[in-house]
């Protein structure tokens, strides 16, 4: 078992990475169903939360069935992180996570997210302020450092543990790398093996298959892994990794029935949480991913993305079940999208 303060997680937990515009409640629900052990919200700006708590309130929506769940904050000054932590606390998440990893200019350029990696004293003061302001366990997610010449994650880990964080997730890239190149887990493994470090260390970056999850588990000895891009359109990765770690074998690829069931669940949760118009509209980008590999996928997708009534969409999903009955799905490699500076995130 892995413990983050008093939160008990199974051995080698699989964490759903916080992702802006992705890890909203509907998506979290399908990841939870498929084996994610710890969920995170999208990141929330401390300043935004304080300025307009009512508008930002939606981002704080969490539900009992999601437990354990962490709410992630980012922000550049000690006072606002303390106030925002107290606002977050009122919504009763299991933990509060601070983002010191976001590389995009609108965040890192203003000294928040990965920007804080350039000023370790500030990072320590911010974290200390957050830890003192809340009774929730505070965790941190960050990168290896600002750039190739300033990888300070070893010092970061020790100093943040000293001010009281309860777990650390490390994305094996620097800020300058954005999403380029391959994530380097060597330093992550080194931190895990530092005898001074006793908090759980979670590795993050480029996990896209059960085989890689096992390989990195063995090679770097981390307490668990956090998975981001590979979950988008493929929430089954969680259960596949679990199955593979337990048995050394791949489970059967997700069936047509399972793919349709995930579409339905995501759709229903979207309708509940976003309302009929946005719920249906935003669901449109999901169909081609969830239904990838089924016969005549393009045709079904083209029909689904123009429908405006939930019943019509459900009817097409019913039709897929009938026409694809008995079809055997095959595995296709997961493609990780590279996000760059000009991408919203
Ligand atoms: C669309 C998108 C949005 C993201 N938003 C956040 C965020 O809000 N907070 C955060 O800490 N990281 C964010 N990240 C980074 C991921 O949490 C993760 O660290 C990164 O994608 C590397 O993991 P992966 O290779 O498994 O995707 C985002 C990544 C993507 C692709």
TrEMBL record:
Residues 15-318 form the DUS-like FMN-binding domain. Keywords: Flavoprotein, FMN, NADP, Nucleotide-binding, Oxidoreductase, RNA-binding, tRNA processing, tRNA-binding. The keyword Iron does not apply. PROSITE patterns: UPF0034. The active site is at 102 (proton donor). It catalyses: a 5,6-dihydrouridine in tRNA + NAD(+) = a uridine in tRNA + NADH + H(+); a 5,6-dihydrouridine in tRNA + NADP(+) = a uridine in tRNA + NADPH + H(+). It is an enzyme of class 1 (oxidoreductase). FMN binds at residues 72, 141, 171, 228-229. The keyword ATP-binding does not apply. Pfam families: Dus. PANTHER family: TRNA-DIHYDROURIDINE(47) SYNTHASE [NAD(P)(+)]-LIKE. NCBIfam families: nifR3_yhdG (TIGR00737). This is tRNA-dihydrouridine synthase. It comes from Filimonas lacunae.
